[in-house]
Specification:
Elements: E1 12-16, H1 20-32, E2 36-40, H2 43-53, E3 57-61, H3 69-79, E4 85-90, H4 94-103, E5 107-111, H5 115-127, E6 139-142, E7 145-148, E8 154-156, E9 159-161, H6 165-176, H7 184-191, H8 201-214, E10 222-225, E11 229-232
Parallel strand pairs: 1-2, 1-3, 3-4, 4-5
Antiparallel strand pairs: 6-7, 7-8, 8-9, 10-11
Helix pairs in contact: 2-3, 6-8
Length: 239
């Protein structure tokens, strides 16, 4: 279920980590959940990004190459005193940091962390924030394709399409990222819970299942980008 800004737009999250792969993984998971995400990899860039991007929350690594996360937070809170933050911290640093982190009303997760746990902590912080609108939008629409996350109903041009649980999760991931090429590895990580053993052929198999149900007899929406992955986009004339 999406949390929204008062104006109805997605909530903005700034992800700050000097390990680019971790930042990208977190950003991808948050985009999948419907957040508008920006990344920064140093303290200086994080502070500048906070001014420009005006995030509703920050995922912030404590250990950065120029100055630490607590200093980044201090500078950000000069502009926004109530900015919610989830800290990322190494296990061996937890004991010295917990008192300082929790005293500010913020949360933290320890590396290595589960993306589901991080998203849950971030949502809990945001629900307590005045930036969040109470209602939620649970229907994703791309072109004439519609997916209801609550009822799990899928329709194309008003015709209901029956999907298995895995097909539904795969389609939801594609629809959360319209017009964005997703690699087989990214799809495996998100849809098959990060530990499927790298069997990329399962992605090809389920893409073929989806195509038979979504694209059969219609203008195709699911496209193969050779050597790169897959992309879902509106059929011509649908925007």
């Amino acid at each position: 279920m999406e949390l929204l800004r008062p104006d109805g737009n997605p909530l903005r999250v700034l992800v700050v980590d000097d390990e680019v792969n971790i930042a990208e993984l977190v950003a991808m998971a948050l985009r999948y959940e419907g957040f508008d995400v920006h990344q920064a990899h140093t303290g200086i860039k994080a502070v500048a990004a906070a001014k420009e991007f005006a995030p509703d929350a920050v995922v912030l690594d404590l250990m950065l190459p120029d100055f630490d996360g607590l200093e980044v937070l201090r500078r950000m809170r000069n502009a926004d005193p109530d900015l919610p933050v989830v800290f990322l911290t190494a296990r061996d640093a937890v004991e010295d940091r917990v008192a300082g982190l929790t005293a500010g009303g913020d949360d933290y997760v320890t590396k290595p962390f589960s993306l589901e746990e991080l998203v849950a902590r971030l949502r809990a912080l945001l629900r307590r924030s005045s930036a969040v609108r109470a209602d939620a939008v649970n229907v994703i629409t791309v072109g004439d394709l519609s997916l209801d996350e609550d009822s799990r109903e899928v329709t194309r041009a008003g015709v209901e399409i029956s999907l298995t649980a895995t097909e539904f999760e795969l389609l939801r991931f594609l629809m959360r990222n319209p017009k964005r090429v997703l690699s087989k590895a990214q799809i495996l990580d998100r849809v098959w819970n990060y530990d499927f053993g790298g069997q990329a052929n399962v992605v090809e198999l389920y893409i073929s299942y989806l195509r038979r149900k979504i694209d059969a007899g219609r203008e195709p929406m699911i496209h193969t980008m050779r050597g790169a992955g897959y992309v879902l986009k509106p059929a011509p004339g649908q925007g």
